[in-house]
Structures are given as C-alpha cells and as structure tokens.
Design a protein that fits this description.
Elements lengths: L1 E13 L12 E13 L11 H12 L20 H15 L7 E9 L2 E6 L1
Antiparallel strand pairs: 1-2, 2-3, 3-4
Helix pairs in contact: 1-2
Length: about 120
C-alpha cells in the first residue's frame, strides 16, 4: 500500500459546551492538520495523488474553518468543537472531494497544540 502525507495550518476560535475548565470560554488555536491517503496501486503518473493537488483540496476544506468561530458553523451546532470532531469534519469534506482518486483510506490528524492531537479515519 502506498501512502502520501501533507500538512497545513489554520487559526480559529471555539469553546466547549457542557465542559468545566478553561476551554469552556471562547479561545483560539493555531491548528495544524495532517492528511495521509493510501492506495494499493499508483495512477497513470505513478502517484497516489499529486502532492500539490492533495494540498489544494485540503486547503479548500480548511478555508471553511480558517479565521472562523467554529461553534457558529452548521456542522458544529449539535456537536462539540473538539479536535476529534474537527478531524471528522475535515475527513467528511475531504472524502467528498477526493472520490475520483480511488483512495482506499484517508486519515486526518488535527493538532490543537504542538504536543496533542486527535485523528479520524474510516
């Protein structure tokens, strides 16, 4: 199985509902997002997908989050704005945009800080 990986960053604010602690108040992060995609065979260019193309598609998804208050986005009205759910949101949006590439697995990693992250894959 072949794998490629790209990263990007975004800045956004959020707060956690029904949570006791600092994170229950509005605050922001400089999030880092990593995406790995897998495929057993290569395409006609001997690639899983072009790095540039994957990064552009990822940035299209990230633009929905960048410099936003994540709690105000429709997807998060009934979901906590945890790193886990943000990773799932990115994954769901990426999956739609990457359908034509016949990828077998997509994994999204979201770093809330430089030393802690959550990931989502199907």
């Amino acid at each position: 199985m072949y794998e490629i990986y790209v990263e990007t960053n975004f800045s956004a604010a959020h707060w956690l509902k029904n949570y006791r602690g600092k994170c229950e108040k509005l605050h922001g992060h400089n999030w880092k997002v990593g995406v790995s995609v897998w495929r057993s065979g290569l395409n006609s260019q001997d690639m899983v997908i072009d790095f540039v193309e994957l990064k552009n598609i990822l940035n299209k998804v990230i633009s929905k989050l960048d410099h936003k208050c994540i709690n105000s986005l429709p997807y998060f009205r009934k979901k906590q704005t945890t790193a886990e759910n943000i990773a799932q949101f990115i994954h769901l949006n990426l999956t739609k945009l990457l359908q034509k590439y016949k990828l077998e697995k997509i994994k999204v990693i979201v770093w809330e800080t430089p030393i802690q992250y959550a990931s989502y894959e199907r």
